[in-house]
Structures
1.
Amino acid sequence: MLIVMDHTHHMWSVPHGVRDTTRPRFAVEAPHRSRLSAVNEKNFDILFVAGVPATGKSWLGKWLAEQHGYLHINAERDSGVDFDRAGIHGEWDELIMTQRATRFVEAIRRLARPVILDWGFPTRLLEVVRALQAEGVRVWWFRAEHDMARLAFIARGGIDPRCFDRQMADIKHDWVRITSVFGARIVDGLHPNGSQRTPQEIWAKICASDKQGA
């Protein structure tokens, strides 16, 4: 499953998936064991991507959906509509509130298809990513030089560039913690001249690195 992190104008608040923390939407009963066993006979890929804004995370998610049959979940789209469509909104809310990923990952496995999750998370929620990783989710960070990424962000339009500046300041502040989670799983989202790397290029890098045990 691929989890791709991509920010929107709500990038500095807890994502739309958490709408009322006083009334949790998740169920308390355990998943049906026989159903999980049947699904887990095939270990579908779960991929999570995050990183510097405007570096192609959502583009990769859309491409994987179109070309390789992945379910692309944009965690911040329209009040969590992608989670609603997949029927896993409650498990997502639980993950954000508890920072425990077991039930969320089990819910994704029950979808019986590869998934890429794209979420431009506030760095204060880094432990959510660590929890996903502990449950076997592949996590990747998209990197880019600050000035080139800012130009790409502005060219994309739709969001105040000050949002980019705030997120980059947080990334810089928490970089040591971020690298403690992502390690060597870092990919360049832009070419040295500032142009976007294609999804094919990024996917080839991710696959090659994972094959080598990065």
2.
Amino acid sequence: MDLDPGLAALRPLGGFFVLRTDTAAAGPLPTLAQAYAARAPDVAGNPLNFRIRKVAHALGTPELRVAASVAHQGLAARLWSIALGCAVVYGGLPDLDARHLRWDPEGSAPDDLWLTGVRPLPAEPEHLAEVVLDGHLAPLAAALHAHHRLAPGLLRGNAASALAGAARELDRWARRHGRPDSAARPAPWPRGSSPTRSSPAPGPSPARPSGAAAAACTTGCPAGASAATVVSRGRPALPHAAHLGDHERERPLRAGSCGCASDC
């Protein structure tokens, strides 16, 4: 299926998978590239810090590092959901370059991200990792590491958990709608690729996916493991937080030895 200008085929998947494209309605929002690059410590000049303060207030915690981790997992889940959703329903990806995605740090899905124009990318599986890992999660992790000293293993675990959650939701949707071909399942790595990636200092490297709807940890977990095996233990809910996405109300039970959310 060709990408349509409004990415309308994402809507049946649920609000967390929807990506707005009417940027005129979004107003003067910063791009995600600007958010990742912001260095100001105050919330007025730093969209990420604004989001983290909002999450901390909603969770009722004074610990900004806790809020930063939860905000990271929420944004990672949002990005994985959009990319995986497009891969499943369209068989390809739009250009999700951080310079073309406007972000409302005060908003919630689906009214938080706006794409400035739908430009298709080649439909090779490698683009999924390049778009999300290289284009977003690496600079996001570097920014959070610089500002809040979040451990690389925690960020890798968040990224893997976010990917697994998005894949689980797609799996449920596919089975409900008679699309078993789109359900989450193990998939081999592309020839010559690796489930690990060295991280440019100082930012940590998130876990790399295997195919469109499978996940593997950076170490310890078998490449090609299904998303369901990456997060095998369920996650307890945090205290109710109004105006946060579902992925920002949950955190992994605990990290395994490899930094993922399972016991490797």
